[in-house]
Design brief:
The structure is a homodimer. Helices cover about 25% and strands about 30% of the residues of chain A. Chain A contains 16 helices and 31 strands. In chain A, strand 1 and strand 2 (about 40) form a beta hairpin.
């Protein structure tokens, strides 16, 4: 393609409301424009990259025997009411009435729709397994759309749904998608980890999130530096941290006026944080839940929810709820407390391995010192569970290696749904014995537009984007230093033809702008290779090829540019 | 692909609510399923064909230097209010509020959006022309969705928008799209005509509709059997039909009790219809408009609207409106009537060439005989214009050849918009003299899903679909007569590999069903070629190739199947 024919308006200034690098660069480099809060238009460059990601997704989904279909964006409310999600979904689901006042939503996802689609068509185990997918715009009315494509209101998603006869079949479908996703994100050039994640409110028996590692990510993850272990921090299983055994001292109360945080208490009493315990009080399913971790640890809300078999996400308890069960905010420990119908105590495993620690005295302005949990808690009466967040001082639960923490952008998720939707919507098949069974489902999502943003978050420098070759809008750009110079243009065109013939996706920057402007744009847009055609090198029948990723520049004879470029691209 | 891996549930019965052949066949053959009124899911076979159409559209749009982008489906109300279409669009536009109560619509089209997108980016004549397109789901809340994909509420459309510096530029952009559309529909294998059409309410200076000729079409078109002339019947310009001159007889009144239609009067008075004139009364922009055509002609409402420079589509006048201007329904002619501020008379050109005709006497149960318009109408006071629909008795306005009438499915439209949107939304550029000018726009649509339906309307028989090769879900199917016979399966697989290597898009029907079932499905789904592998022919190292379109069957040596299939496909 010729740059003079390309609609790619670049911006000099960073837009003031762009809050992450990928958004800033996509706006500056002319990849997209903002239409309204959380709504973006893709311009030709951005759309080229999106189409390349889509093509990779299609190839790998097809290779995994999934079949592409297309369901409507408009979904009738009835099926969501049948599954119980019409109310459960809340304000994030965009709802619309048609001219006859029938209710619809704009699909945020398609579990109900796909289940309805197949339920009258698949009747026998002989027709299973089936895996159907689509690539489509999805809608979620985020309360606060932000981070550009990473949390927008209309976004491109690949969603797939598998149907199997039994759990073993689901395992196979799941594994097949897991492997396809691994290939997809590898081919997109992302640095990523599939991490164990929480199945949360959606139910189901297992899930992995595919996390692109990036500072701008919204998820906290932990991964092993030695083995494959990786988990969302919410689900990372910490081991038990032991402390050196000590002789048990006598429990006593000390005055700690106004020291309502464990940090303040530790400072006041000159104690290290790991010699303290701290309390966080939640409200879960109408119960007050007291969670206890070491002063140097943090509570994992999801683990607390699981420990008490909670059906909803924990919320912080209100002052009224604390009062109702007799707790004194800021000065709480389990010492002397009993569980009741409406009050549960959950203590982290590592707390049980502490000696002579300090914790709340359950009255205002006072703390206990020399708490010894095994001695001082009503151990018959409390739940002991791993409810702290895993830290970098923990070791890998799989291999004992050391752990790293990182931020991740969730670019994909694979999910064992089980029978939640097939039961709600009566999607059954007859098994080999002629008995009806609900189909066993899995669902598998990829954020296509978010993958684009994640790649930029990972690959950029102060001058612009550094595209992985596979999803770059063009693989190479040819820059004649002076487009008015006929010799330069003629050589550029020769190279352009040779590269096209070699199957390289190439742009010829035939604009009459100064070389500096073209170089700046090439760096900003981030073509993997730049081929500079200038008088100096032309004298030797050579051009310069610069690699965006490394900055490395090398000379190349004009008639071997195609070979050289092809070779270089293979390693980018 | 293997049929056992393909999700393609066929139906034995024609669904009762399917009102056109394309809809019936797409449901029966497992191309799509109905989700709700006017909403369809494409299954793998249907989606394969849609993607083939999309690929053709992309190739030809790119060849015409248009660039693909993607704008959001959700569009803010503000831009539609600026253009004045927020109210004008009516109930067909689906409207939705977000959680903060901001108003949006689901894009039925994107003129406002694209104009807003480019208006701050294109500032100079040097950046023009630009042509941007997208392929996207569009939404129109039809009062009565019907005809399957031909009038659905969510449909796939390719919409393109061109921006030029002047009318000459627009002409070029328009021509380029016109040619691209011609190539696209030719490549899709459609029988079609680009027809002149009415620019209607949308404004602009010219438009062609691309009409696929088919009985199920909703549009009436007329085309020349000798030259390229073709027009929507609404815009087809009839010539003046002369009648043989006669001596003018004396005007007189005859009783015609209860004869309120011109057919009844003609019968009562034993006159041929062309010796009568008839009246249709409209309400346009608050005026009563009396339209007069010959008794054997029909009024063209669009022509009437143009004749009186009406800004809205004509509606039939109410009895109250007739009364207000003193007209007696069923007995109206212009004889003795005068135009007023609120009453206009429009007479078709051919009426002025009649002699001694019969028409209403402007009183109940009475008609004039021997009306001679040039003598009896207040000729200074009436508008004479071509306001009748063109008939098959007319001749081609371009070459004088004979005309054919046909029904057409509108699969595409090209439109010269001019400055309607660039002026409303202030999309200006600086010309060579540094003066701001509104950009000159064109817009160009293709109904992608409708094109699929149109192809089936054109190509089918009592057994199923007969796909043009270019948009068939698979180009060929291999049917081993008995999938349990290892020799047949092994030969089938050999042929399958050979065809795949030759680049043929082929399905191997490896299902264990009876041959009859597979043949029926092959005919229903409509693969262009069927390769039958049976014991009989295998003895001679041959298979049978059947051409769906002609029914012709030919023998072919196994090792030359790939060559033969490739050759046959080239002519399909």
């Amino acid at each position: 393609m010729l740059a003079t024919k390309l609609y790619a308006p670049t911006l000099r200034e960073v837009p003031s409301d762009a809050d992450v690098v990928s958004q800033q660069l996509m706006l500056r480099a002319g990849f997209m424009r903002k239409t309204a809060n959380g709504l973006y238009s893709f311009l030709p460059l951005g759309w080229r990259s999106i189409k390349k990601i889509e093509a990779i997704v299609r190839e790998e989904m097809d290779r995994a025997s999934a079949q592409e279909i297309m369901m409507p964006i408009l979904q009738p409310a009835e099926i969501w009411k049948e599954s119980g999600r019409w109310n459960a979904y809340g304000a994030e689901m965009m709802r619309i009435n048609d001219r006859h006042d029938n209710e619809f939503c704009l699909g945020p996802t398609h579990e109900e729709m796909i289940t309805t689609l197949v339920k009258n068509e698949i009747n026998s185990y002989r027709q299973l397994p089936v895996n159907l997918y689509q690539i489509q715009s999805k809608f979620r009315d985020e309360r606060r759309p932000r981070y550009g494509l990473m949390r927008s209101r209309e976004f491109i998603m690949k969603d797939a749904y598998s149907f199997d006869v039994d759990e073993a079949g689901l395992e196979e479908s799941y594994k097949s998608m897991y492997d396809a996703y691994t290939r997809i994100f590898n081919r997109c050039g992302l640095t990523f980890r599939p991490v164990e994640a929480d199945s949360g409110a959606i139910g189901g028996s297992g899930t992995h999130e595919f996390m692109a590692i990036a500072e701008a990510g919204e998820a906290d993850i932990v991964y092993c530096t030695k083995c494959d272990y990786a988990a969302n921090i919410e689900i990372g299983k910490p081991g038990i941290m032991k402390q050196e055994e000590e002789a048990l001292q006598e429990l006593s109360v000390v005055d700690t006026p106004n020291a309502t945080s464990i940090e303040a208490v530790a400072e006041m009493l000159n104690l290290p944080l790991h010699k303290t315990i701290k309390a966080v009080v939640f409200s879960i399913d109408g119960k007050v839940v007291l969670a206890i971790v070491r002063g140097d640890h943090e509570v994992n809300e999801v683990a607390v929810q699981h420990a008490v078999l909670g059906s909803v996400e924990p919320e912080m308890a209100t002052p009224e709820e604390l009062e109702k069960v007799g707790l004194t905010a800021g000065f709480i420990s389990p010492v002397g407390l009993q569980q009741t119908e409406e009050f549960t105590i959950v203590v982290d495993e590592s707390v049980m391995e502490t000696y002579n620690v300090c914790g709340g005295a359950n009255k205002k302005d006072a703390h206990y010192v020399n708490i010894n949990p095994k001695r001082d808690f009503n151990v018959e009466d409390i739940i002991v569970a791993p409810i702290r967040l895993i830290t970098k001082d923990d070791v890998c639960p799989t291999c004992g290696g050391s752990l790293e923490h990182a931020k991740g952008i969730e670019v994909g998720q694979v999910f064992k749904l089980g029978t939640k939707y097939s039961e709600a919507l009566q999607a059954t098949f007859l098994d080999q014995n002629g008995r009806p069974n609900p189909m066993i489902m899995g669902c598998y999502g990829i954020g296509v537009s978010r993958t684009l943003a994640a790649a930029i978050e990972q690959y950029h420098d102060e001058n612009g984007i550094i595209w992985p070759r596979s999803i770059a809008p063009f693989e190479a750009v040819i820059v004649p230093i002076n487009a008015k110079d006929e010799a330069l243009m003629s050589t550029s065109e020769t190279i352009y033809s040779a590269l096209q013939e070699a199957g390289v996706d190439v742009l010829l920057d035939d604009r009459k702008d100064r070389a500096g402007v073209k170089f700046k744009d090439a760096d900003l847009i981030g073509y993997p290779l730049r081929i500079t055609v200038s008088k100096n090198t032309l004298e030797n029948n050579e051009v310069e090829i610069q690699i965006r990723k490394t900055g490395e520049a090398l000379s190349c004879a004009i008639d071997s540019v195609a070979t050289k470029v092809t070779e270089l691209l293979q390693n980018l």
